[in-house]
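Researcher: I'd like a structural prediction for the single chain below. Treat it as a standalone chain; there are no partners to consider.
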Amino acid sequence: MEGLKPYPAYRAARTHWLGNIPEYWEEKRGKYLFREVDERSSTGEEELLSISHTTGVTPRSQKNVTMFKAESYVGHKLARPNDIVINTMWAWMAALGVSKYTGIVSPSYGVYRPHNGQDFVPEYVDYLLRTPLMKWEYICRSTGIRSSRLRLYPDKFLEIAFPCPPREEQERMVTFLKAKEVQIRRLIRNKRCLIAMLNEQKQAIINQAVTRGLDPNAPMKATGIEWMPEVPAHWKIYKIKQIAQFNPSKSENTSTFSDEDEVVFLPMESVSTTGVIDCSQRGKIQTLRNGYTYFRRDDVVVAKITPCFENGKGAYLGELETEIGFGTTEFIVLRAQAKIDPIFLYQVTMLPAFRRDGAMAMTGAAGQQRVPGSFLKEFTFGLPSIQEQLKLLEFIGNETKRIDQPIEKAQKELALIQEYRERLIADVVTGKLDVRDVKLTTLDADETWKDEENGDDLSDEEMEPEDAEEDA
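Model: Treating it as a single chain, here is the predicted structure.
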């Protein structure tokens, strides 16, 4: 990797997951390095910290997400600089890290402080804690009845063995990795900018077709709609409630399916902001019927909660792998009627004006604002005939296909860059690569400092599941 070489000599680690480690490195179990602490806030006024599987421990005020808020944070656990903070319920996702801050976290979290005299560099521990091999340790040592509800308890965490390189090597590893991350962040930022630009081009093509048709010389007529002042003269004006059914009844298919039939279940994370659905999660109808949102193949789903609505979460369910399915209650289901093609209906729900005006119409407490059903029902737009809709959709498909190819290429490259970053960190902090004599330029150090000051972030998170659980 990048011409880096392994250490001159290795020995087999006592801990199987470490494999071979440099022959002079030590290994110690967590209990000899850290101790659990249970220090509580008496005022609840300290900085509220967020725990993420991608960014570790950060002030929640710096996160670009909307969270639930507790009435009081008195009695929450205090974390101090260099403490390890672990979300007990999401440790299997590596939702943990070393804190740089004094702040408060959920009482259900684990907080661990280095024993006096332990010579660990906090940044090295932070890198090590979130490597894939450590993540498997958390999974193996966690307990629970379901994979999504595994808990990593203190006694199990403190039994994990840690490699213990000399402090000067830890410092060198941290300096090297920070410098390399500057380069990686730059690559990631460039790829994301390219993807965003291409998606904007796609959206412009879709907007033009869905709101004005394909004939630039077509006679136009006024609509009285603020965001869509005119449409081709032969189009008709409708509200969504006039051309789509809302939240169809679950009882419509009771005679067709048995309670034991397994169908697709769509949590929010299984629906992307580009309309792609992940049908891998399944459940029995008798388990899902009560308490979840019902839909059928070819329906359209729209996320109603912030920030998912604003981010474009929604999909046309033409690729649903079972005839019916269930999903999170945060979906509104639309079923296209005779006047509108369901794919065209989905494109209407993806219009920037629809998302912008819906966000302005949201109601509810901070962190739990939702788009009211009345907004969707009353949303007004111009609609051509079914025949013209199909022609417009064919045009959109042909035009956007040219853009989808470079987007897919950039996304694959982005995934490879992120995979490279993860592998590089793991190989360095576990001693597979020797960076003791690697020369780093002054530019690397300066750029690292600038990126840290700017709070550069490698994540794309809309919502931290660990924080949502904490305050729910």
